[in-house]
Amino acid sequence: MKKNDKGFTLIELLAVIVVLAIIMVIATMAVNRQIKKARKGANEINKEVIVKAAKTCLVENAQEDCDTIEELQEKGYLEDFEDPWTGESENLDDSYTITINEDGTNAKVIYFGEGITEENETPPEEYFSWCNNEHTCTDGLTSDGKEWLQKHDDILIIPGNVTTIKDCQASSSDCTDFSGINIEALVVTKNVNISAHFKNSTINTIRIDGGKLTDETFGSNTNYKFYNSKIKKMILANASDFTIGQYTFRDSSIDYFEIKSGSVGWQALQNIKIGTLVIGENVTKLSGNAFTGSDINTLIIKSNNLKSNSKDQAFRSSQNGTNVIIESNVTKLPEKLFANTVTSYGNFVREIKIDNVEIRGDKTRFSKKDLYNAGLRWDNIPEDIGDPNDEESFNLYLSESDFAESGRYCGPVKKAREYAKTHSWLKVDESICVN
Questions:
Q1: Pairing mode, if any, of strands 107-111 and 96-100?
Q2: Rounded Cα gap, residues 231 and 254, in angstroms
């Protein structure tokens, strides 16, 4: 019997490899579909559980005590869980926002975390009024586009290929500007130049990861991008490259406003009502007058990299009272971050009224002088700040040089001298403002 030693030919081997590759691709796609389906299912369960917890909380508490994941967990209404798209169990308020109706009888949850584009559909391209044939620019929604949004939970996700959002162009047909829209969420997950207006709008949640919110014309009214709008939650600048133009949010109200990174320009966020403002860890600069005239109930500072010049005073001209929280990771503050009657600018007094200052973590890491140089008044500085064993850290000495900029303005000096009678850590040079 003749033995057959013939093996596979090269063509046969290639054919087998191609078939196996196709099978692997199909299998991978099927697995990915199942994973996506499982994550969406888990997210739906998360949202249902959050709504139930919020409704239970509302029976016994005020609305403002039941509208964040952190509050619900702290009060015991909600157990620990994970964002199924990231696997993270911390900072879940970055992924979910809770909307409670005006009479406090119902709650709704919107997911806008990293899986937002997987969870929700992007409006079909034909529903945008495009600026050009390449579809890199959009200048509004068509009437069909607005109807599409209403049928898809009013969540507007800007397509990934868009680099510019403008107001309707003169030549556009069936184009409606974004002003006056009433939607649940606006999501921009890449760097986009937003020169369109969303003024007079009601938007529960805004997430803009990067780009520009500005026009080129300095001081122009066209910079009022979100003028007179109501926003429940806004998360800006997940990306490092971000620019906020002058007057962008003027006369708007924002319940929760977090800036994650980048720099904030001069007068960019003035005259806004803000419930909670978070200056994120990667924010590098708050320019002068950035928040002038804005009423901020709670200011949380997480950035340890803030830079300023000697006259920045990002926070000023507000008399409604602000609670300042400095997180435990912060070890330094820029000079004159806050304006008060001592650290005046151009001899004008444009104070920000501060009701309370909370220093979290090690309280000896700051000296009282550090906080005074940051713009806090001596009566804003907590008693327990500084190292009592280190006289320079624990005590605050006010000398003539501290008041030189305002021409030795004696009002604050005399008030400080009175304050010092009952606060041994504050000492005032007895040779100044004695008359």
A1: antiparallel
A2: 5
